[in-house]
Design brief:
3-stranded antiparallel β-sheet; 238 residues; 2 domains; 7-stranded antiparallel β-sheet
Length: 238
C-alpha cells in the first residue's frame, strides 16, 4: 500500500505541474525481491518462520526523471526564452547554489538584472546579465542585446556529461556536484517557452492503474484483518 501510495503521489505531482514551463516528468522505479523472509524473535534469538516461506516484496527504489523535451510554444513576451536542443539555463538561488532549469520564463529584478522569478538571477557566460529594459533581443546563441543593439551579455546554457549526477529539487529544478560544461548543441528561441514533457492522457492512465492497485492492497488487508479477528474470537472462546 505504501509503494502504491508513493506512486500515486509521483503521478499526481506530474499532473499538477503539467502546465509548468520546462518541467520534467518523473517515474517510479521499482525494486523487486524474490523473497522477503518473515521472522520472529523469541528467547533463543531471531529465527526464520518456516524454511523458504515468505512473501514477494516490491518497493520504489528511486524516482527517475524523464528528460525528453517538451513542446515549444510562442508567447508575446520578449523575456521568454526556450532551449531548442541540449542543456539547461543556470540560475543562482538565494542560497547561493546554482540551479539548472529548462524554464525560460524570465523577468527583470529591481536592479534590472535578468532573473527567474522566485529563484534568482540568470547566469551569463561572464556573470549576471543586466538588461534594465524588457525590450531586449536574444539571439539563437544566447547573446543578449539592447533595443539599440548594445551587447549586454550572453545567456549561459550548460549540459551535464552524465544526467544521473543531477539531483532534483522540490521546485522541479536540478543541482549537481559535477561540472556542467557549456553546451554547443542548442539554439535559443525568444518569445517562446518550452512546455512540460508531461503527457496528461498517459498520466491519467497510470493514475487509474495505481489507484486500482492501492485499492486491491487495501481490500486484501481488510480481508486479513477480518480473518485475524475471527481467529482471535475462536481462540478466546476456547
Amino acid at each position: 500500500m505504501m509503494t502504491n501510495q508513493k506512486n500515486i503521489d509521483i503521478i499526481g505531482n506530474n499532473l499538477l505541474n503539467s502546465e509548468t514551463a520546462g518541467y520534467r516528468a518523473e517515474r517510479a522505479l521499482y525494486s523487486a525481491f524474490e523473497m522477503q523472509m518473515m521472522t520472529v524473535t523469541d528467547d533463543s534469538g531471531r529465527k526464520v518462520l518456516g524454511d523458504g516461506i515468505g512473501l514477494p516484496v516490491s518497493v520504489i527504489e528511486k524516482e527517475q526523471t524523464m528528460f525528453q523535451p517538451g513542446t515549444i510554444e510562442s508567447t508575446d513576451r520578449s523575456l521568454d526564452v526556450a532551449i531548442n536542443g541540449e542543456g539547461f539555463f543556470n540560475v543562482t538561488g538565494e542560497d547561493g547554489k546554482i540551479y539548472l532549469t529548462r524554464n525560460g520564463g524570465f523577468d527583470l529584478d529591481t536592479e534590472g538584472y535578468l532573473v527567474l522569478p522566485g529563484i534568482g538571477r540568470v547566469l551569463g557566460t561572464n556573470g549576471y546579465i543586466r538588461a534594465t529594459r524588457s525590450d531586449i533581443q536574444i539571439a539563437e546563441d544566447g547573446t543578449v542585446s539592447s533595443a539599440a543593439g548594445a551587447y549586454l551579455g550572453k545567456i549561459l546554457v550548460s549540459a551535464p556529461t552524465d544526467y544521473t549526477t543531477l539531483e532534483r529539487t522540490e521546485t522541479g529544478m536540478f543541482t549537481t556536484a559535477a561540472a556542467t560544461p557549456a553546451s554547443t548543441n542548442y539554439s535559443l528561441i525568444q518569445n517562446s517557452l518550452e512546455k512540460s514533457n508531461v503527457n496528461q492522457n498517459m498520466e491519467y492512465t497510470y493514475l487509474i492503474a495505481a489507484q486500482r492497485a492501492f485499492q486491491g492492497c487495501s481490500s486484501a488487508l481488510s480481508t486479513i484483518d477480518s480473518i485475524n479477528r475471527k481467529a482471535a474470537q475462536q481462540l478466546a472462546a476456547v
